[in-house]
Design a protein that fits this description.
Layout lengths: L2 H7 L8 E6 L2 E6 L9 E7 L7 E7 L7 H18 L2 H4 L2 H19 L4 E2 L1 E6 L3 E7 L3 E6 L2 E4 L6 H7 L6 H6 L10 E2 L9 E6 L5 E5 L1 H4 L4 H10 L3 H11 L2 E2 L10 E2 L6 E7 L5
Antiparallel strand pairs: 1-2, 2-15, 3-4, 4-6, 5-10, 6-7, 7-11, 8-9, 8-12, 12-15, 13-14
């Protein structure tokens, strides 16, 4: 059992202002941010005990405005850990089908055990040939390859709907939209809701790095700056978190519906980077 798994099962991540994991090909950082009093993000780095070529990386973020977000995100990754370790080889080869079977139970367990709390989830399952990225809420998954950063997952959010209908012009404008924190899909909080998970399968040969993050990261850095840091840094995870915590973001005035400044470190910030291939 690695140190991240130990921290998750002992609920230690929520007791720390800063956590750094360097486990095999994954580097991950969790920071409480500059204004929050509690860490409501959770992170899981795990390999299947019987089939270690099967790996799972997860970032979960307690839903703002709901109670017990720290507990909800921890329950999310804890339940995912035990479910993943119980999968047999055939289940692992049909990961997407098995997760969809598990989803309702996961949703109800998060609500019940967190006493009405809620959480987002973004995950990357990798095996010998592929990576499978999926999300619930506004935690994001990116891949980096051939000096290009691509956002793979789409947010389940009101701002994303505005973008898809053309009312918001791009991802940068979406960051500054005042209702960008309103999410349309999540685990927990209430029953009898539809959670529609989109899976994105990518051949591992087309990936150098996978990045998963909470919105405390993606809200506080432009995609271009994110990409520039990955291109030039020997430790992009550390340098991206440093930027998020120290650099305010600015945008020209559009209307009262938009902010013109995003304060650095406005939220908990969690970022995980998994390296699949080395640069040539």
């Amino acid at each position: 059992m690695n140190v991240c798994e130990v921290d998750v099962l002992a609920k230690l991540q929520q007791q720390k202002d800063y956590v750094l994991y360097d486990i095999d090909d994954v580097i991950a950082i969790m920071d409480i941010g500059n204004y929050r009093k509690r860490q409501e993000d959770s992170l899981l780095i795990t390999k299947h005990q019987k089939y270690p070529e099967k790996e799972l990386l997860i970032v979960a973020d307690g839903v703002g405005g709901a109670k017990n977000g720290d507990l909800a995100s921890n329950i999310t990754v804890t339940e995912m850990y035990f479910w993943f370790q119980d999968l047999n080889k055939n289940d692992l080869n049909n990961f997407q089908i098995e997760f969809n079977k598990f989803l309702d139970k996961l949703d109800m367990t998060v609500k019940r055990k967190s006493y009405g709390g809620g959480s987002t989830l973004v995950a990357a399952f990798t095996d010998e040939e592929k990576a499978l990225l999926f999300n619930i809420g506004d935690s994001r998954g990116y891949i980096y390859n051939n000096e290009e950063l691509k956002q793979v997952t789409n947010d389940d959010s009101y701002a994303q709907r505005m973008y898809e209908t053309g009312k918001i012009k791009d991802n940068e404008e979406m960051r500054f939209y005042k209702k960008s924190n309103i999410i349309t899909s999540y685990l927990g909080i209430n029953y009898n809701k539809l959670i529609n998970v989109k899976f994105h399968e990518i051949d591992k040969k087309d990936i150098e790095k996978i990045f998963l993050c909470s919105d405390g990261v993606s809200d506080c850095i432009s995609k271009q700056t994110f990409e520039d840091i990955v291109k030039t840094s020997n430790n992009p995870c550390k340098d991206i978190i440093n930027h998020v915590l120290t650099t305010d973001s600015f945008y020209p005035y559009i209307s009262p519906e938009y902010d013109t400044i995003i304060k650095a470190g406005k939220d908990n910030a969690t970022l995980a980077c998994k390296t699949l291939t080395k640069k040539r």
